[in-house]
Amino acid sequence: MKKHYGFFIDAERCIGCFTCAMACKNQYHQPETVVWRQVYPISEEIYPYHERAFYSLACNHCENPTCLNVCPVKAYYKREDGIVVHEQDKCIGCGNCIRSCPYGAPRYNPEQKKAEKCSLCWQRVDAGLKPQCVQSCPVEALQIVDLATFDRPDTVQYPPGFPKHEKLNPSVRFVVPQLPKVIGREDI
Amino acid sequence: MSNIEMPLVLFSVLSQTAIGLTIMNSGRQIAGDDFIGEGRRQWGIVLAFLVTGMVASFFHLGHPLQAYTALKHLSTAWLSWELLGVSIFLCLALFGFFTEKEKKSGLVAFLTALVGLLTLVFMGMTYAPPGYPALNNALPMVFFLLTALLLGTSFSAWFTPSEDRSWLCRILTVSLIVGLVVYLIVPCIWLSGGTVMAQTAEAWIESPLYWGRIVIGLVLPLLLIWKIKDIPPWLPLIILIGELLGRAAFFQETVHAASNIGGL
Amino acid sequence: MSTTENTPETQAGICPLTRRRFMKGLLAAGVLANLPCGLLRPTRTEAGEIVYAGDYEIFRNACPRNCYDTCSIKTYVKDGVVQFIEGATESTFTRGGLCVKGYGYTRRPYSPDRIKYPMVQEGRGTGNWRRVSWDEAMDRIAKKILQIQEKDGNLLGLALSKYSGNFGITNYGIEGMMSSLGYTTRLTGTPCWPAGIDAQNFDMGDMWCNDPEDMVHARYVILWGGNAAWNSVHSVKYVYEAKRRGAKIVVIDPIMTQMAAKADEYWQIRTSTDGALALGMARHILDNKLYDRDWVMANSVGFEEFASYLRENVTVEWAAKESGVPATNIIEMAEEFATAKPATIWIGYGLQRHVNGGAAVRAIDALVAMTGNVGKVGGGARYGHLRTWGFNYHALLQKQPEGAKGVPGKAEVKGDFHFAGGNDAAAVSYSDRILNINKTAQVILDANDPPIRMLWVACKNPFSQDFDRNKMVKAFEKLEMVVTVDQFFNETVNMSDIVLPVTTLFEEWTINASYWHYWLSINERAIQPMYETKSDIQIAATLSKKMNALKPGSCTFPTEIDSKEWMTKEFNQGIYDLFGIKSWEDLKKGPAKAKMPSAAWHDLKFGTPSGKYEFKSELAAEWGNKALPEYVAPREKTDKYRVLTPHTKFGLHSQFINLDWSEEFNPKPFVYVHPQLAAEKNIKDGDTVRVFNSIGEVKTTAKLSTVVPSDAILMYEAWFRNNPYNVQNVVDDTSSDMGAYKTGQPGVAIHDQFADLAKV
Question: Above 60 in pLDDT, residue C48?
């Protein structure tokens, strides 16, 4: 069966430590303002404790990627294994993918005047390694999975706080964060 | 979009002006309007708008010299179609300009208008991405049609003797009223939508650009037409300023979906 | 040390270091024949992206920061440039990953902000820096030292401020350098964890924690006053695994920390009442005979006295009133904790940074001991350990020059990491002058016989990490010369006369052990030192050369040293045996773990005078504390609201936060205010506010947050390169209750601070 790589984000395990985001920077040295992976705090309407639950997101390597569809120069292609690759040498920096992606994955590189985004470390994957972000996670909250066979029943594709775009069909699955039992102070 | 995108503001408004003007031109030729001697000048103005817009558009590209490669993805990218449309439109307009002599070329004008209209549709699709929930619908197309209509009609007045402008005045008045209603209602609809739509509405409502477009681009022209009962030659320029402000608001104040990741 | 490599010079033009330019630097470096990896050709895509290309030269490094995790690092080098780093997969603790701070190391040697050359500042704080040669810098410093010697007849006017900026074993050569000059003034002690160290020493005879990896066997885990999710990210997986195996996870903290959010239960406690809560639980356990009678009888002394104290002075209701935790919950947790076997408590360093912090740790130790959880796999009162630090301290141990004079008599230099004692103890007739690092500003102001004329700062940032910053400004005015060894132009450098550029971890050899886990890592030189940077021991050698040139015999430190050789000199058979290695070279294959049982005190032979666990410690009484782990009242409020200044996840004290990569995710500081308090003060989210008390103020942006109690103000300690934010403006130098016994000086009541706040 064909592989279909995607990210599995276990927000119950995630401690919002930004290690994944910095590990990516460590691998690709993106210039200022360019981040391929960002750690988004979940708002208090969804998780009541301020900045205590997170979604670590990069490119979702959508089944039907809007970046690929709207790119006028065919700088994007989707690999057999589902990885959406941006070929920077073809990019003319029109910004259409950046405007189009509701997940904010493609970013504008002001030095190269081109777009760029998470490559799912396909060179590492091809070398039999994990993507740098996945390898870096100290709590195994971020994993790369094969969605063709992935069948964890407690996961969702569109948890609250993650934009729902069924047409794009993002290759991500989430476990939502739980709340601890809180014993508050009696004196305040 | 947090960036005013001035090249895109100029490109979209000016090319839509050119399209609007061509459509008016074609319509009037079909209607048998006689304005011999103005044809070539009108093509010239169309070209002036279009070429200015297209030159501006290069400045929004990171690598303008590779702009031609943007034609590569006609299978799914509306932007490729937009470029194709604009390019054909340019060719036809040039053809019109150089072949327009004493004789009217109704067919060329008609074809150009048709391509222009299609280009408006492509533009509408290009600027309706999932990244901007407030615009991921038919609204950009409506906005662009309105721009073409308002500026096409008003600039048409330059080529219409004052005694024949009354029907232009009527069209423009109705267009301005429609524009005013659309632009006032749209943010209200957004407010009742999702978080990012509502944020977009708030950003627009709080933006001087938006109110500038309402007042300068719609209300003021309406009052002037109502008062003067004509389209003086400077009026299209006022409407153009309004449209440019409105387009700047479109690019700058619309909120991207990614800004609300983690929120409801 | 050679500074002829072209690499640093090539790189020197790279500011800011863009990816494109980085590539050019790489290519330029690639042609250098003197680099071992110069033959490797870079593989690049056409667009010039940095991608994973394979065929890297891999070096072993270790994070030398003051952190639980002390990660083992694998450094991937191409063309003499660090391309990226990863955690060592050989270490089951680090397990292939680092942390948000650690991954920033890839940027650090190449940061445009790095201090590249020795520099002299004309007028402290003016920013009027001038590049000088090493020779000129050393000349100025050496002449000043000789002048002090001339004037005072000794070098007590030369003081050293050094702590945990780099915990590499060879970095103790800084202390060695001072000894090699003569008897000097030493700022000793630790601001970090001394009260808890003393507490554990009184109770058990040493500070010794179980292997964190054995936490998976615990049936009940209390994380008390520490935020592992930010400060020991690699330990969290063991907490999760314990939870998966059925353990209950409880977090006790004044702040709803990230760790609290991941627990089964979070208890919000009134700050500095941890001792009361522990004693309340102990009382309930005692009353219900849930304690481990056999264990207590066999392995402890003083339990009866402790029990009497509890019966006479402690009730659950009292504990509830003191701590703010409802009595029903105290009872419930006491019962659960006492019956879960094994149960463990991870004692965070936060809870001992109080005037009653040592007492609180002793109360918690007692809770763990009375339930028979000390010495058990999956149990233990986990605080820290130094069992894997038995190196030779070759760099540290240097002889004073002939005829050097100091403070008459023998005084022992103590410290949390001082293992090696003095040299030639019998012959000593003079000593260093020992002053309290935790009152650095005050002792500089007070010392007059002789005054401190010159301060050497290394592995330390006093303006960010020492207390009462405004007082520190005054203290520095008294100093005739300040020399700081650092990597970035931080606040202390800003207040110095001379700055010396120091190497990063990639540029020098050393060894790193952890005070938490049981792993040992070697730190190889992965790249040549950039620019004109030198390691601390190379700086010492350079200074020694100059000293001896100006006045032969004035410094005993070797004038030429091989850093790698010096690293090897730190090893001994004991270390080899402990880690099961034949030679230090084995560590090049990966970090090694100490062959120790996972349970601290597994043989139940305690290091106390009685050889048993001491609920009643006469030693504690000798050092001015209660013999029993009695409750000590918190510090009286000195202003309206408590100020808490714990660690941020983006930094370690003043390190990491200033890097541009770090700013990407953490661009500016905030003060966190509970919405209720904010409403009272008419403060809205995003307002600029002023936090102020009698010693100073901090001005920054407010963030409204319910994770902070409504009677406290929360600010994370940090140094931002473009922001004057400094929490030490409002933290005074009040001492904590313990620390003097083992670390030489009491700790600091960092979290017993108070201030008011107002909208600006």
Answer: no
Do the chains contact at A99 and B129, CB–CB below 8 Å? yes
C153 torsion bin: left (phi>0), alpha (psi -120 to 50), beta (else): left
Q: Does B251 touch chain A (CB under 8 A)?
A: no
- Statement: residue C225 has pLDDT above 80: yes
Length of chain B: 264
- CB nearest A32 (choices: C54, C260, C660): C660
d(CA B36, CA C657): 72
User: What CATH fold (topology level) applies to the domain C119-190+391-507+532-560?
Assistant: Rossmann fold (3.40.50)
CB contacts, 8 Å: B260 with chain A? 163
Chain A hits for B70, CB-CB cut-off 8 Å, are 72-73, 92, 94
Report yes or no: A79 and A31 within 8 Å, Cβ to Cβ: no
CATH code that applies to domain C641-759: 2.40.40.20
Among C621, C194, C629, residue whose Cα is nearest residue C368: C629
Rounded to whole angstroms, how far apart are CA atoms A120 and A126?
Answer: 11
C226 pLDDT above the threshold of 60:
yes
Residues C145/C547, Cβ–Cβ less than 8 Å = yes
- Tens digit of each residue's pLDDT, chain B (264 residues): 468 899 999 999 999 999 999 999 888 877 776 655 577 888 999 999 999 999 999 999 999 999 999 999 999 999 999 999 999 999 999 999 998 776 666 788 899 999 999 999 999 999 999 999 999 999 999 999 999 999 999 999 998 888 888 889 999 999 999 999 999 999 999 999 999 999 999 999 999 999 999 999 999 999 999 999 999 999 999 999 999 999 999 999 999 999 999 999
Q: Where are the domains positioned within chain C?
A: 119-190+391-507+532-560, 210-382+598-622, 641-759
Residue of C23, C31, C24 whose CA lies nearest to C6: C31
Distance CA A171, CA B134 (A): 24
Q: Give the residue from B239, B92, B85, B212 showing the smallest Cα distance to B158.
A: B239
* Three-class secondary structure of residue B109 per DSSP: helix
Asked if C261 lies within 8 A of A52 by C-beta distance, the reply is yes
Which class is domain A5-175? alpha beta
Matching residue, tokens 């194709």:
B84
User: Average per-residue pLDDT in chain A?
Assistant: 97
Angle between helices C194-204 and C357-370 (to 10 degrees): 40
Q: What is the pLDDT of residue C2?
A: 39
pLDDT at C9 over 60: no
CATH homologous superfamily of C210-382+598-622 equals Dimethylsulfoxide Reductase, domain 2 (3.40.228.10)
Tokens of C426: 């019998």
Lowest mean pLDDT among A176-180, B39-43, C233-237, C340-344: B39-43
Distance CA C678, CA A89 (A): 51
Interface contact C20-A112, CB threshold 8 A: yes
Give CA separation, C246 vs B48, B134, C340, in Å: 75, 48, 11
Contact assignment for B261 to A74 by CB distance below 8 Å: no
Q: Any idea where the domains of chain A sit in the sequence?
A: 5-175
Cα torsion B213, B218, B221, B227: sign: negative
Q: Which pLDDT score is estimated for C428?
A: 67
Top-tier CATH class for B6-259: mainly alpha
Long-range contacts of the stretch A73-77 (C-beta < 8 A, 24+): A73/B66, A73/B69, A73/B70, A73/B72, A73/B73, A74/B72, A74/B73, A75/A115
Longest dimension (CA), chain A: 64
The per-residue DSSP string of C669-680 comes to -EEEE-HHHHHH
Subunit contact A139:C324, Cβ cutoff 8 A: no
Instruction: Tell me the mean pLDDT in the region C136-163.
Output: 98
Q: Give the predicted TM-score (pTM) of the model.
A: 0.94
Which DSSP letter does residue C76 get?
E
